[in-house]
Specification:
The chain is mostly helical. The chain contains three helices and no strands. It is elongated. It starts with a helix and ends with a helix.
Length: 98
């Protein structure tokens, strides 16, 4: 038999996960969007070139000049998505389990 507490726990997990996913997506989108505008302004490029330039900018510069390049930028974006997702998800979960 399914207890109400089990259903509440499942619903809490779903709400916490969805909240975390939204927070992560929002922060990653904001950082990539801002860096694309900055990199596009610096390099004078648009579209896909602005995105690759932004990723290299976030990665500390091109690999040829000692930066981590686009891989470093992807790591920054990934971190920017995961950290808020985990924090918000855990806080929402704790809020409902008080």
């Amino acid at each position: 038999m399914v207890e109400v507490k089990d259903l509440v726990d499942a619903a809490t997990g779903i709400v916490a996960g969805a909240s975390g996913m939204m927070a992560g997506a929002l922060s990653a989108t904001a950082i990539l969007g801002a860096s694309t505008v900055i990199a596009g302004g610096i390099d004078g490029v648009t579209g896909a070139s602005a995105i690759t330039s932004a990723l290299a900018l976030l990665g500390g510069g091109a690999v040829a000049v000692g930066g981590m390049g686009m891989v470093g930028g992807i790591a920054v974006i990934t971190t920017a998505a995961v950290v808020p997702a985990v924090i918000v998800g855990l806080e929402v979960f704790k809020f409902f389990h008080h």
